[in-house]
């Protein structure tokens, strides 16, 4: 227990051993494997779960008076015969990065062509064209393929228009081949949800979890008031009774920010040959270490790394090194987690992400096709992220676009991003707004499991954090105005 204003705070009940799902020790890594091993594992794990629901859902389906049959390979699909097939999606998009092409042009010295490929220089665009490029998508040319070990087939149909579909999903589609190599889709099904552990409730395990994301402190920050307000509020110095129920603080990525003046622009001619230059800011890290150390006297802190933190670029990001938290690491109630991370607290199983996986998925679907020049500046900042986060649970993949457009380690024996268990809560940090919902996932036996979804806003932009009640799973936004 910790004290606040002379009173005892309850401590959270958690697992004494941190989850190992996303742990990837440096000493055991090997970069000899190809990324196809990840897709092979993902397909093997999820294909059988898709088939479970597909055979049940489409058992009584009728297309043009015929009952559809399951075809094991996409290249064996009969012409104009109703069937359903299962495979991995591949989104072919005009502005999606092509790393192999970039490397080829760089090695060959075609730097002008490389600049046009990566930046689009020399091409006249309006604002909407530029925004389309930032999101990979050009609705006029986007294509979605379904592939397996035998080959690939192009998916078409209006049923695809209202679905979020990106690279790396394992799905089942019902329909028929209307032209050679073109499959018209009339229905889609996702994998069966993985089992969910029973919530172990106890009267002793009540309390609130404080969720903070995107502190983004750096040495140029002149306005420290919001950071000090947050700390003083947690320590109970602002007279808010809610803080007495806080049992832990979770920092969901991006504790520090990069000093932009230290960034060194890299020319295309050395992009793939020169070592990256670190933008490490020792003053920012020292401030955050001191900041957390003060809070740790009151409540435990668990921290995930984000894209701005001093960690490796690829997923899953490993815990921020303890040497960067010289003071905080001396305390037993300071826990350094991976990104993503599974975390146990008060009988709940929480899946947490710093948001990089969701932000990459958004590049496949944002902006809205109906965006106009008048509202283009606000279309991304006001866009809801809930549907994307919910979809990732329906897909049963935390980061489906890794390794295609999101860096990750080339695992050769597993895909840690494929869910083999469903969490009770899914927290995503570094989002533009606070949002929350409950998504229902169905299993073949008729069981419906629910997951509380929470999008945590960046503190540096919104001056806001989120309080999660660990008993009712209700959420509350806490804003610090000054």
TrEMBL record:
<dbReference type="GO" id="GO:0006271">
    <property type="term" value="P:DNA strand elongation involved in DNA replication"/>
</dbReference>
<comment type="similarity">
    <text>Belongs to the DNA polymerase delta/II small subunit family.</text>
</comment>
<dbReference type="InterPro" id="IPR007185">
    <property type="entry name" value="DNA_pol_a/d/e_bsu"/>
</dbReference>
<dbReference type="Pfam" id="PF18018">
    <property type="entry name" value="DNA_pol_D_N"/>
</dbReference>
<dbReference type="InterPro" id="IPR024826">
    <property type="entry name" value="DNA_pol_delta/II_ssu"/>
</dbReference>
<feature type="domain" description="DNA polymerase delta subunit OB-fold">
    <location>
        <begin position="34"/>
        <end position="188"/>
    </location>
</feature>
<feature type="domain" description="DNA polymerase alpha/delta/epsilon subunit B">
    <location>
        <begin position="210"/>
        <end position="435"/>
    </location>
</feature>
<dbReference type="Pfam" id="PF04042">
    <property type="entry name" value="DNA_pol_E_B"/>
</dbReference>
<keyword id="KW-0235">DNA replication</keyword>
<dbReference type="InterPro" id="IPR040663">
    <property type="entry name" value="DNA_pol_D_N"/>
</dbReference>
<dbReference type="GO" id="GO:0043625">
    <property type="term" value="C:delta DNA polymerase complex"/>
</dbReference>
<protein>
    <recommendedName>
        <fullName>DNA polymerase delta small subunit</fullName>
    </recommendedName>
</protein>
<dbReference type="GO" id="GO:0003677">
    <property type="term" value="F:DNA binding"/>
</dbReference>
